[in-house]
Amino acid sequence: MTYQTTFNPFDMAQQQLDEAAEVLQLDPAVHQLLRQPLRELHVTLPVKMDDGSTRIFQGFRIQYNDARGPGKGGIRYHVAETVDTVRALAAWMTWKTALLDLPLGGAKGGIICDPKALSPGELERLSRAYIRQVGRILGLEKDVPAPDVYTTPQIMAWMADEFAFQQGYNAFGMITGKPLALGGSAGRGDATARGGLFCLREAGKALNLELPGATAAIQGYGNAGSFAHKLGKEMLGLKVVAVSDSRGGIYQPDGLDYEQVYAHKAGTGSVVNFPGAQNITNEALLELDVTVLIPAALENVIHEGNAADIKATFIIELANGPTSPAADRILHERGAYVIPDFLCNAGGVTVSYFEMVQNAYNYYWEESVVHERLDAKMTRAFWQVHQLATEKKVHNRLAAYLLAVSRVAEAVRLRGWA
Ligand code: GLU
């Protein structure tokens, strides 16, 4: 576990940018500007607990870069949250929105907390406390949060409500991933997984490989991972043989049924001990001999220490930052096809952008329209990355960086910032 303890995601994000800056021969001032967040707000949140005591939580909102448009990016609730993790995630949002050519910048938020140890009432008071502090820098035209690790549509609803009282009117477009009844978008729930699977479908074409019946392993069973299980079968005919969550994984070579696994997790709190499957560790899941590996949990799970043991042909990064730069090189040399996080998981923010547009117009689209427009955006971005990677003979992540960074750099230059 040494890789975990010494790992700093912001160092990793800066290293990735440095590599792209060198290839692009980026102007040194632009490069320096893009290495740091533009603005950070650190907040202290007093919350009344159910037992009558008050606990103090720490939170952040980091607006990494808004040269191309308002900040955009989720809010994570996690015990191991750090300011550098939020910085890295905010940087990745900047590259993600630019790569998908959305008129948005990149931002991210986080609260250091263990959401599983909080009651619904405590969670609501914590979420409202966050908006009381951070609301002043949010808004449809400033910075728009969304769900991420351990945050839900219900949490977005509480935040939208708190913000409405701050403003004196309903300004639902200040946050996305809301429930449908409060200005959410059709198709936002499964958008991250769906977008990643559109990319995988295109990658199958690019490599001339048949996907129906291909085996898949999914690490993480939150929003992205569980919908990847459901849609992997529905959209592409994948055979999902292993899934996991924070407590461990399960493996069944004949395939795992989505409805049954989902019901088991809903009943027991975990996928572990699913009847008829073998329990495996999260580490072992990554090294299974499958065609498609889908990391859909946290950062830095594929690193220098295990990259050589990863056997999958396709790595579908639904998590943010699952692969370290050293692992990238190892995977590339071995010929694995990585669909990098800020392309692969951009379906979430793309439908968030559609949600903002619908909120601004107060006119809502059919789910089929959302799917079609998401497909068009993901497919276009996928082929831009694939073609540039082929042309320049670099791995997909570097190609994606070259596209995204040059778009942000152009906006920075046009605005006269550097
Ligand atoms: N949290 C998601 C991400 O990392 C979605 C962000 C958003 O919708 O703004 O891309």
Count of individual beta strands = 13
Architecture (CATH level 2) name of the largest domain: 3-Layer(aba) Sandwich
* Shape summary: globular
Fraction of residues in helices? 40-55%
Small molecules in complex = glutamic acid
* Class by alpha and beta content: alpha/beta
* CATH topology description of the largest domain: Rossmann fold
Terminal CA distance reads 41 Å
Beta strand % = 15-25%
Number of domains: 2
Uncertain stretches of 5 or more adjacent residues: none
- What composes the largest sheet? 7 strands, mixed
> Any idea what the radius of gyration is?
20 Å
**CATH homology group of the largest domain:** NAD(P)-binding Rossmann-like Domain
Structure overview:
- There is one protein chain.
- The protein is built from 15 helices and 13 strands.
- It has 418 residues and is α/β, with parallel strands linked by helices.
- The longest helix is centred in the last third of the chain and has 26 residues, at 367-392.
- It has two domains: 37-182, Leucine Dehydrogenase, chain A, domain 1 (Rossmann fold, 3-Layer(aba) Sandwich), CATH 3.40.50.10860; 185-361 and 368-418, Rossmann fold, CATH 3.40.50.720.
- The protein has helices at 2-5, 9-24, 28-34, 83-99, 120-134, 153-167, 191-207, 223-236, 258-268, 282-286, 325-334, 341-344, 347-361, 367-392, 396-414; strands at residues 39-48, 54-65, 71-72, 75-78, 106-112, 143-144, 215-219, 239-245, 248-251, 278-280, 292-295, 314-316, 337-339.
- The radius of gyration is 20 Å and the shape is globular.
- A seven-stranded mixed sheet has the order 10-9-8-7-11-12-13, with helices on both faces.
- Strand 12, helix 11 and strand 13 (337-339) form a beta-alpha-beta unit.
- The mean pLDDT is 97.
- The structure holds glutamic acid.
- Glutamic acid is lined by residues 72-74, 96, 146, 148, 176, 320, 345, 348-349, 352.
